[in-house]
Amino acid sequence: MSVENTMSSAGSVTEPLTKNHEFLAGAKATIPLIVGAIPFGIIFGTLAEPSGLSAVGALAMSLFVFAGSAQFIALGLLAGGAALPVIIATTFIVNLRHMLYAANLVPKVRHLPQHWRALMAFGLTDETFAAVSNRYLLQDDVRNAHWFYLGSFCAMYGNWVLCTALGVGLGELFPDMTQWGLDFAMSVTFIGMVVPYLKNKPMWAAVIVAGAMAVATATMPHKLGLIVSAVCGIAVGLSLLMLDKGKPEQISKQNAEQPNEAQSAVQQSVTSQTKTEEGK
Amino acid sequence: MADSSINEVALIFGMFLATFSTRYLLFAVAGRVHFPTWLSNALSFVPPAVLTAIIVPAVLMPQGEVWFSWQNPWLLAALASVVIALVLKDLLKTIVGGMLVFMLLKFGLGLG
To answer: The domain containing residue B82 runs over which residues?
Structure first.
C-alpha cells in the first residue's frame, strides 16, 4: 500500500479525490447492481412470514445480517423446520465466499484504522465487492477510496432494507402471494448465480456431487443434508483441481508468485456481471 | 405460521456473527496472516456447491418426494433456466426468462 501511495504522490502532485466525490461515485457505480438486488429484497420480504419469520424478524435480519443469499437460505431452512444451530452453521458456510473477497481487498484496507475495517467488513457484499474491485482496477489512488466503498455500501444497504420492508408490506397486503410461484424465484436466482462458475471439470464435478448428495441426504434430520452435500461437493472439486495441477505443494509455490486462479475466477464472474449491467 | 420454537433474536444474532466473522477476520489481521492457497481454492467451490445443494432438492422434490417427470414444472423450468444462463450469460435475463417458463408451465399449461 505504501508503495502505491508513494508512487502516486511522486508521479503526480494531484490532490486526492474529495471524500464527497468518492462517496457519490461509489453509490453511482453500484446502481446497476442495485437494480438486480431489488426483486430479491422484495421477494425475501414477502416470503418471510410464510416461512415462519415475523415481519420484525425479517427487517432485523436485513438490518443486522445483510447477506442476501444467506437470508434466503435461512428462510428455506426455517420453512423446512431446521434447528437453529443448523441455520447458523449453514449461514457461515454460505458466507465463506466473503473470505475470498476479503483476501482480495486486504492490500486496500491495510492502512485504515480498525473501526473503518469493521464497517467495511459489515458491508462486504458480492455487489460492493464487484463495484469496488472495478474502482481499484481503474484507479491506483486509494487515499480516499474507502469513501467510495462507503458510498457503495450505503447504497446497497439502504436499498436492501427498503426492499425488505416493501416486500413485508406486500406480503401482508396479498397473503396468497406465496401461491404465485415465488418459491421458484429463489431457485432460478441461484441457478443464474451458479452457472457462471461452471467453467472447468472440477467445478462441474463439485456441483454434480453436491446436487446428487442433496437428494440422497434430503431425509436427514434438521436439514443437515445441505451441509453434508456441500462439503462432499467441495471436497471432490478441490481433489480434482489438485490432481489436475499436480501436487498441492507445487500449486502453492506457483500461486505464491501468480495471482490465485480460483480467486480471479470469482472476481471475474462478479465483475463481468457489472460490465454486462453497465453495457445496457 | 410463525414457528415459536425458534428464538428470532438468537437466530439473527447467530447469523450476524456467522456472516460478520467471515467478512471481518482477514481485514482485522490484514497482512499479518498468510492465506493458504488450498483454502482459497476450496472456498471458490463453496458458493456453487451450497447453492446447487439447495436448488436440486427444491426442483426435483418440490413436494417432498422425488418427482422425476416431464410433468414436473419446477424441474422443467430449472433445466430451461440453466440453458438460458449458459446462452445469455446474464443473471437478470435468466431470472426473468426462468420465471416466465415456470409461470407458463404451471399456470398456462396447468402442470404441477
So the answer is: 8-108
